[in-house]
Specification:
three-stranded mixed sheet
Length: 516
């Protein structure tokens, strides 16, 4: 079982009897330190994998947890050579698929299809529009085929396919945003805490083990909370940002869903059957089958965009080394077959990721607040990811590959198949097209600026005093900085206000270099 396949009913394990089946789980320090992953991400994986091992043992399976500093493929090869060929479910991660290719070629591992996805190849093939894939066409096709949120006449429930325009309300403070459940320290969490202190103390980010679900019971408790406290109000405030609540009415289920701890199929079925406002019901389901499944197909079809762009030689650190002043040192070198991911640059972005993304104060309060939240929790909702982090990085002409690596490192729910399409295509447009979808960061500059000005007022900071220019964000010396970014500048200026205006103008015509 791979670390992102932690469900009894998935793939090769689904129809196996405990009486005649052994399960191998791998804990590779090389893999967990391949990048300077957030402590919460590492702990989330360890907690859930160890809880899953105990659940399988309780069911009667013989479970072997192979731990070591070596890469996962090396640990698995050692087990296979001792025990004989094994059966695996196809890995969701492209990086894992290529890492394990060697043992598959050696005949030590047979691979069965991953049956946890909700959509089929024909769904994706049918959403091609000329040279592009359409997320909207994909979403409608899946709903037609499955009957999900369709009425008896074959029309979408509520009379519309999407209620996105209704889901953009600012949150006024009511209804109150719910507090996420906490999970008491127990033997499992204490064991992971000891592992984190011993083996992963150099990783960045805070660690709050009581915030992380681990067991099946924990996951059910979090989902019950999300259904009762979040989903009734999710739709209208889906796109809202607030300094009063990090999560607002978002379910926080994505880390569990991407580990396959809580299958997406179960969640979609539950929401479809609930008595919810159509805006909330459709909004949640669209995120799962219209976005999550779509980006997975994009990643698979393009081989992580390697079909059009060269790949980096090895895994990147998302700017960690520059921020820390020392190189990141994984426990061991990544195995053969693991590269650093595609490096698309359709808009030419080459600026190193600013140290502000690692927690160095920039004075741009919207950025600093979101970054603080991310390094505290290893999570934030999709609007802060795209409208703040992705949008500002694009304004600053940041290297999209380094930004993607940063997201992969900083977020608990980040895996290559989901983070790369989200960052390289949607957030930064670095791939230059190929998708007709909601390029939210490309049209979010004005919205970000309005949100920042509201935030300044909330923090009682006078406009022009707390907002730095590009040089400040990039960590350059004060002597190299221009005027404060809140102050109007000409179109050649480096202020955020000017950049925002230029950004909106650029994307109306669609050619950044021609207009910059």
């Amino acid at each position: 079982m791979a670390p992102d396949q932690l469900h009894r009913g998935l793939g090769a394990l689904a129809d196996r009897s405990p009486a005649d089946t052994g399960v191998v789980l791998l804990e590779s320090r090389e893999w967990l330190s391949r990048r300077p992953y957030h402590r919460m991400r590492v702990a989330m994986i360890l907690l859930n994998q160890r809880a899953f091992a105990e659940e399988l043992k309780a069911e009667g399976f013989e479970v072997r947890v192979e731990r070591g500093d070596a890469p996962m493929v090396q640990l698995l090869r050692q087990v296979a050579q001792a025990c004989g060929p094994m059966l695996a479910t196809e890995w969701a991660e492209r990086e894992m698929r290529h890492e394990f290719r060697a043992v598959v070629d050696e005949g030590l591992l047979q691979v069965q299809p991953h049956d946890g996805w909700l959509t089929a190849p024909e769904d994706f093939a049918g959403c091609r529009r000329g040279t592009q894939w359409s997320m909207d066409a994909f979403y409608r096709r899946v709903r037609h085929r499955t009957g999900l949120l369709m009425d008896e006449t074959g029309e979408p429930q509520g009379g519309r396919w999407s209620f996105d325009t209704e889901n953009r309300k600012a949150w006024p403070g009511t209804p109150a945003a719910p507090a996420a459940p906490r999970f008491a320290m127990d033997a499992l969490r204490r064991g992971v805490q000891a592992t984190m202190e011993r083996d992963f103390s150099e990783h960045p980010g805070e660690l709050d083990l009581e915030a992380l679900p681990a067991t099946v019971k924990d996951g059910e408790r979090l989902w019950t909370w999300a259904k009762a406290e979040c989903l009734p109000h999710f739709g209208p405030f889906e796109d809202a940002m607030s300094i009063a609540s990090r999560g607002l009415f978002h379910s926080r289920m994505s880390p569990l869903m991407n580990l396959w701890r809580m299958p997406a199929r179960r969640m979609v079925q539950d929401v479809a059957a609930m008595a919810l406002p159509i805006e909330s019901k459709e909004g949640f389901i669209r995120q799962v089958i219209g976005w999550r499944e779509f980006v997975r197909w994009v990643h698979l079809q393009t081989d992580g965009f390697r079909d059009a762009w060269p790949a980096a030689a090895g895994p990147g650190d998302g700017g960690f080394s520059r921020w820390k002043g020392a190189p990141w040192a994984p426990v061991a070198a990544a195995p053969q077959g693991v590269d650093g991911g595609a490096r698309p640059a359709a808009l030419g972005g080459s600026t190193p990721l600013p140290p502000a993304f690692w927690g160095r104060a920039s004075g741009l309060h919207c950025l600093d607040r979101v970054v603080q939240d991310v390094w505290s929790e290893g999570w934030s909702h999709h609007i802060t990811r795209l409208m703040v982090l992705g949008n500002l990085a694009t304004l600053l002409d940041v290297d999209a590959r380094e930004l993607a690596d940063w997201f992969w490192i900083a977020y608990m729910d980040a895996w290559d198949w989901v983070v790369e399409p989200n960052v390289l295509a949607m957030a930064t447009y670095a791939t230059g097209g190929g998708r007709r979808d909601d390029h939210q960061a490309l049209r979010g500059g004005q919205r970000l600026h309005r949100w920042h000005e509201r935030l300044l007022r909330r923090l009682r900071v006078q406009a022009g005093e707390g907002l730095p220019d590009h040089a400040a964000l990039l960590g350059l010396p004060a002597a190299s900085r221009g005027q404060a970014a809140c102050q109007p500048q000409d179109e050649a200026g480096h202020g955020l206000a000017a950049a925002t205006r230029r950004f909106a103008k650029v994307h109306r015509c669609g050619h950044l270099r021609a207009c910059a």
